[in-house]
Specification:
heterodimer; A: 10 helices; B: mainly alpha; 15 helices; globular
């Protein structure tokens, strides 16, 4: 038991890594080989269940669900990645400012973080998208405006612990300016945390994109996006067509699971003592 | 004494927060490219005399500066006037009054169900740690965490309404009925309540499991076992009880997720509550209604945090006796 446990964990993270790799390759390569005409409908092959010709079936207007799902995942990944980078960037700046300047600035910024955290994120997103026509930009803005707080908290607490380290004292004694300490000492030491925060944010941002699109407030309706597809599938579901909403949903679920299991692995690796003590 | 301090402290945070949120809403609406008058008139906008459109604008106070619009709205709010919904053509207060109850009903039932199930299953998984049961439970919970709630709702409709035909797919009552009867309502409530509870319960379950596992390692649990207490007593009276403390605070912090879940579940099941109405208001760019509902949701979060804080003082004798540290 004690011996098989780490092995099982190791396999799990390899599986997760392979899943992410396959999905990323698919969204990069498939559009190069097969072009999707976003407007094309083919009513003769409408509502077909999964078959060798259409592994994920076809939707109510005869579009191939597999191909559209891959294009949809591509849109979701692009929007999710952009939103994640933007939110970590904003959060990083706020966290650096709070941790470096300290005092009243820190207190004020952290109250702002608390304020943003007590807003229902999706509602805020809905509000922004409703007022500024649904588009990829509106989705990115709505997600990053509400999600920078996580990164801000992480960066601030890291900066606070870095501040007490001897090399920072040495830099101060050597006459480095505040800006120089931030750029040369804080940022490089924060890089791994920032990277992890970004990677973890991507699935969550994808969730927001799909939720907004599902509600009709995200991507333009004709565009193949996972949320739009589930929204379309909702209509034909009552007629027994399960495939056009099941498969796009799986393409949200699987990458999210893979990323969270990878993040778990990275955390365990970063802190082996914690893992062995808690054995979680 | 402690209670008064907590309430004051929370209010000191809540009042500026609510002011900032509402002001932010107005600033966003001001910056928005949407023209509410055109939206209101629809097709007729092109045929309407510009003078009439300007009159409507003036009537709604849209030609006023931001600060004046905001203070007017705030003043009306304090007198209980929330304005008029532009898409439903009804007073906002009436729209909320008619729908708030349905939301509270579903969310309340879902909360009870999720607490009961989360606590029971989480404790069981911690007690039977590393068994097949534990692995099944944690595996399901992790997967559920990653699954969007609207998708889970659709799967539930597919399984229980379309395939098995056990439960209705949505709405409050059967299309044919004109009045709300209890058995009909209960049948329509099952899927929304269970889906909302299921989607919200996985974090709770994982949290309870982890917490109980941690406590089971503590000395006092070993002590209780050494004194020969029954395993059930050790588990429920000693371990679970002390594992629950941090959970109260977290419960309060999860209210935003609950609001989000309610919005999506009401949208999927066409439930006529306030959360689903928010989406309709957003799709129709109905600012007065959307603003009131956003305020309501933020208020729910603030109240949730306050209740969690107060519950903490009741649950933890250290806080009750010595005050907040």
């Amino acid at each position: 038991m004690a011996l098989t446990r780490p092995l099982r964990k190791a396999r799990r993270h390899r599986l997760a890594l392979a899943t992410v790799a396959v999905l990323v390759l698919a969204v990069v390569l498939v559009p190069l080989i097969v072009r999707l005409d976003q407007q094309l409908v083919d009513l003769r092959s409408a509502g077909l269940p999964p078959s060798p010709a259409h592994p994920f079936g076809t939707d109510e207007v005869g579009r191939d669900v597999l191909l559209r799902s891959i294009y949809g995942l591509r849109v979701s990944l692009l929007v999710g990645l952009t939103a994640a980078v933007v939110s970590v960037f904003i959060g990083g700046l706020v966290g650096l400012a709070a941790g470096t300047l300290g005092g009243p600035v820190d207190r004020l910024l952290m109250r702002v973080v608390d304020g943003f955290n007590s807003l229902p994120h999706l509602l805020f997103g809905v509000f922004i998208v409703a007022l500024f026509a649904p588009s990829a930009t509106a989705v990115v803005v709505s997600v990053s405006v509400t999600h920078w707080t996580t990164a801000a908290r992480i960066v601030r607490s890291e900066v606070l612990s870095l501040r007490g380290r001897p090399f920072v004292d040495a830099a101060i004694s050597g006459g480095s300016s505040r800006l120089r300490i931030v750029v040369r000492h804080f940022v490089p030491n924060l890089a791994p945390q920032l990277l992890l925060a970004t990677v973890l944010m991507v699935p969550h941002a994808i969730w927001h994109e799909t939720a907004l699109s599902f509600l009709g407030l995200g991507m333009p309706p004709h565009l193949a996006s996972l949320g739009n597809m589930i929204n379309d599938g909702q209509r034909s579901l009552l007629a027994g067509d399960w495939w056009s909403s099941l498969f796009p949903g799986l393409l949200i679920l699987v990458p999210t699971l893979a990323v969270s299991s990878l993040a778990q692995y990275v955390r365990d690796r970063a802190n082996p003592r914690w893992r062995s003590e808690l054995n979680l | 004494m402690t209670w008064a301090r907590i309430v004051l402290w929370r209010l000191a945070f809540a009042v500026p927060l609510l002011l900032a949120v509402t002001f932010g809403m107005f600033a966003l609406a001001m910056a928005s490219p949407f023209d509410p008058v055109r939206q209101y008139l629809g097709e007729r906008a092109d045929m309407t005399d510009p003078q009439i459109m300007a009159d409507i604008r003036a009537n709604w106070g849209l030609d006023r500066p931001l600060l004046e619009q905001y203070t007017t709205w705030l003043g009306n709010l304090l007198t209980g006037d929330l304005g008029e919904s532009r898409s439903l053509r009804l007073p906002v207060a009436q729209v909320i009054g008619e729908r708030l109850g349905w939301t509270l009903l579903v969310v309340g039932c879902a909360l009870v169900l999720m607490l009961a199930a989360g606590l029971a299953i989480g404790t069981l998984a911690a007690w039977k740690r590393d068994s097949w049961l534990d692995r099944l439970v944690t595996g399901t919970a992790f997967t559920n965490e990653a699954a969007p709630v609207f998708w889970v709702g659709l799967l539930a409709i597919w399984i229980f309404s379309v395939t098995l035909g056990w439960l209705p797919a949505g709405g409050l009552t059967d299309a044919a009925s004109t009045t709300v009867t209890l058995p009909d309502l209960a049948r329509h409530m099952v899927l929304p309540v269970v889906v909302l509870a299921f989607s919200q319960s996985s974090w709770l379950l994982l949290f309870v499991r982890e917490s109980v596992i941690g406590v089971l390692r503590e000395d006092f649990v070993t002590g209780a076992r050494a004194r020969g207490l029954r395993e059930r007593t050790v588990l429920l009276r000693h371990a679970l009880r002390s594992a629950l403390l941090p959970f109260i605070t977290i419960m309060g912090a999860r209210v935003p997720e609950l609001v989000t879940g309610a919005m999506l579940v009401e949208a999927v099941f066409s439930w006529p509550g306030v959360a689903g109405t928010t989406i309709k208001a957003a799709l129709a760019v109905d600012f007065p209604l959307l603003a009131a509902l956003t305020l309501l949701a933020t208020l729910a979060v603030v109240v949730g945090n306050l209740v969690a804080d107060l519950a903490y003082t009741v649950a933890d004798p250290r806080v009750r006796v010595l005050g907040v540290s």
